[in-house]
Design brief:
It contains three helices and three strands. By secondary structure, it is an alpha+beta fold. The protein has a domain of about 70 residues.
């Protein structure tokens, strides 16, 4: 059985993202994301004890470690989605050792 149109489009989009990522400095992109996110956090007065969501970057995506590290250093709780065995999503603190 062939791929559905939706699966074909997703595969094409993933391939396009990988091609773009191959030409980018993903670490530098991640640092840029961190700078802009921290400026936004300042403008929104996001501070200690607040909760923000993030994602953990895949290899072909801009890195998110810098922004997550900077937010946790500000005592902001960073939560990330985790895929459960049932393929449902749950949220966990980024620095939770038991996740």
């Amino acid at each position: 059985m062939g791929l559905s149109v939706k699966q074909q489009v997703r595969a094409q989009r993933r391939a396009a993202r990988r091609a773009i990522a191959a030409t980018r400095d993903l670490a530098a992109d991640g640092e840029g994301i961190a700078r802009h996110t921290l400026a936004l956090a300042d403008n929104l007065a996001i501070g200690p004890g607040e909760v923000v969501t993030a994602y953990e970057a895949l290899p072909a995506e801009p890195q998110t470690q810098a922004v997550c590290r900077a937010l946790t250093q500000r005592a902001v709780h960073v939560i990330v989605p985790i895929t459960l065995a049932s393929f449902d999503l749950d949220w966990h603190e980024l620095d939770d050792p038991d996740r």
